[in-house]
Amino acid sequence: MSIGRLYVVSPEPDDGIIERLIKAGRCGADLIQIRSKVLSPERLIKTVLYIKKHLPDNILVIVNDYPDVAIYAKADGIHGGKDDFDLKDIQEFKKKYNLTVGVSVYDSLERAKLAERYGADYVAFSSPFPSPSKKKVLTPIKIIKEAVSKLKVPVFVIGGITPENAPSMLEIGVHGVAVLSYAFRGDTCENIKRLKKTIEKYAI
Question: Domains in the chain, please, with CATH?
Answer without folding.
Answer: 6-202 (3.20.20.70)
